[in-house]
Structure formats: C-alpha cells, structure tokens
Protein: HEAT repeat domain-containing protein
Amino acid sequence: MTFFCPTCWKEIKGIDTICPFCGADISEYANKDFEEKLINALRHRERETVQRAVYILGRRKSIKAVHPLLKLFKQTDNTLLKIGILNALNEIGVPEAKEFIFKVIDSDTGIVKRMAREIIDRESINHAE
Ligand SMILES: [Zn+2]
Structure:
C-alpha cells in the first residue's frame, strides 16, 4: 500500500506520523476517510493538486473515484489532465473504467485519442508477456 501526505500529497511511509516533506501531522488523518479527501481534491482550484489527486486515486485503484473521474474528464478541456485521468482509470481497471477508455478512442480526437489508444495497446502487450 502506498501512502501519501494529505496536505502536500507527496509519497510517504505508512509508519510516518509527521510528513517528512511539509511537517503535517498525519496521525490525525489515520481515522478519517483518506479516499474521500482525495476525491474532494479533484475539485481543488489548483490544477497541480487535481493532477496529483488523479494520479494517487489511480495508484490506490480507487473504485469510488471512477464516477468523479469520468465527470472531471467530461468537464475539463485540459489535455494533460484528461491523459492523467485515462491512466488512472486504466490502473483502477474496473470494466466501467476500461469501457470509458475505449469510448474515448472512438469519440475523442488528437492527442487524447492517441493516448487512450496507447494505454490500451500497452495493456495488451503486458498481458501477452
Ligand atoms: Zn506533506
């Protein structure tokens, strides 16, 4: 399991009680719903925080995040964010997330379409090995 500081979102060790990067008291977060916080961070006004939350939700294979991620994908015009969301959906890996990536290949254009294609291709190569 990978742990992330809920304040600066850097990767930390599960045993840390104080974030070694920003000094945040992490012990107080142990009892709170970290996944819920990450999903809330998808609505953060700073793009970098949103990107980070998308990435972490993917790494944590957060099934709860699938719908919020799909919604965010449809709302944003930011290509980098869209690609981040596709990668996260692929990591989460539930059928609904995978189907969405295929839908993007069919309906999107340009680099987002190409990246969706690449994610699916990469996946089939990994399965073949
Ligand atoms: Zn921190």
Notes: Residues 2 and 11 are 7 Å apart (CA to CA). The chain has one domain: 33-128. The mean pLDDT is 88.
